[in-house]
Amino acid sequence: MDARHRHNITWAEAESDTAELAQEAYGAARVRSNYLSLREPELVRFRRERADPLNIAITSVFPSAVFVQISNSLAVRQIRPRGIDEVEIFQTMLGYADDPLDLTQHRLRQANLVGPAGLVSMEDGEAIEIAHRASKPDHDSTTVIELGGAGAISDRDYRVTDVPLRGFWSYYAELLGIEPDGAVR
Amino acid sequence: MTSGAPDGSARDRFALYDLFAAYGALIDAPEFDAWLALFAATCTYHIVPRENYERGLPAGLVYCDSRGMLEDRIRALREANKYNIHTDRHLIGLPRLMGEERDAKLVEAPFAVYQTDQEGETRLFATGLYRDRIVVEASGLRFRDKLVLLDTFAVPSLLATPL
């Protein structure tokens, strides 16, 4: 995150762990990772394009822009509020003008991972809607979901975290002058 | 007969109608193995918003340029993906024979898909046009290339089950 925690980058490096390490990390969460395989493994093959090993780099810029690299698929997302309870996400998939044809093909295939029909991301919108529905039934009381926990807003060295969301809302509250006393920034 | 459209025997036309009737019914059932069997041994399946298609932009919402990728999609749907539990209802208009390209028939058909959620709400989920290349295999007519052209890029929340 930046110093004011408005923006954030979430990233991962290719081949930074082994199958054994992954098994160890996810085994406790009862994630079974050893019984499914793809007929077309190209879908998840990462072609290194730069000197760095990043195969995921998602840059969120306050308040509504996201620059996405997931494996070799590249996209810009624009988040547009449509009302108090609805947002729309525009996703523009990108390639470079001088990409070889097979790389363009690869990017198009890996676009299957993202977006509303994305093999990785299709449930993201649904998850947000479920949380939204679950938190709004009581009109005469307040629902609190400590997404990202409590305490200092600070970087994590793992990706399974919602702390940057707190940074977003902290700055949002500051801009709108609705920051409560003693709020964490 | 529309001028310019190639003639076909009544039997050929009914075979075409049967194919589209089975296509929608098997998604709604859902019987995805039987649905996959309606595709040729070598096939493609793409879902593309009309806006992209008309500008010649190739990015799609679903992009399967091989049968393996389509099979992976169905496997993921069954075993890996989380999505809203719902039932689908396909209403597919009469297929229109547009011409022939080597061994394939070029066929278009309009469609609408309604979804019903667990709270009992039925809503229109998508409308569009199938633009297909259909070939004859030993087992009958099969989709070789299926292009699902959505009338709009805006997908409500998520697209999990095939269109």
CATH class of chain B: Alpha Beta
- E-strand count of chain B: 7
Radius of gyration of chain B: 16 Å
In the CATH scheme, what's the topology name of chain A?
Naphthalene 1,2-dioxygenase Alpha Subunit, Chain A, domain 1
SSE arrangement of chain B, N to C: HHEHEHEEEEE
CATH architecture of chain A: Alpha-Beta Complex
Instruction: Identify low-pLDDT runs of chain B.
Output: none
For the terminal residues of chain B, how far apart are their CA atoms? 29 Å
Residue share in β-strands of chain A: 15-25%
Cα end-to-end separation of chain A: 12 Å
Specify the CATH class of chain A.
Alpha Beta
| Rounded radius of gyration of chain A (Å) | 19 Å
Total of domains of chain B:
1
CATH T-level topology of chain B: Nuclear Transport Factor 2, Chain: A
Percent in strands of chain B: 35-45%
Mean pLDDT of chain B comes to 93
Summarize this structure as a short list of keywords or feature phrases:
A: 185 residues; alpha+beta; Naphthalene 1,2-dioxygenase Alpha Subunit, Chain A, domain 1; five-stranded antiparallel beta sheet; globular; B: 163 residues; Nuclear Transport Factor 2, Chain: A; seven-stranded mixed beta sheet
What does this structure look like?
The complex is a heterodimer of chains A (185) and B (163). Chain A is an alpha+beta fold and 185 residues long. Chain A contains four helices and five strands, in the order E-H-E-E-E-E-H-H-H. Chain B is of the alpha+beta class. Chain B has a single domain, classed as Nuclear Transport Factor 2, Chain: A (Roll). Chain B has helices spanning 10-28, 32-36, 50-54, 67-79, and strands at 39-49, 62-64, 86-92, 96-101, 104-117, 122-137, 140-150. In chain B, strand 6 (122-137) and strand 7 (140-150) form a beta hairpin.
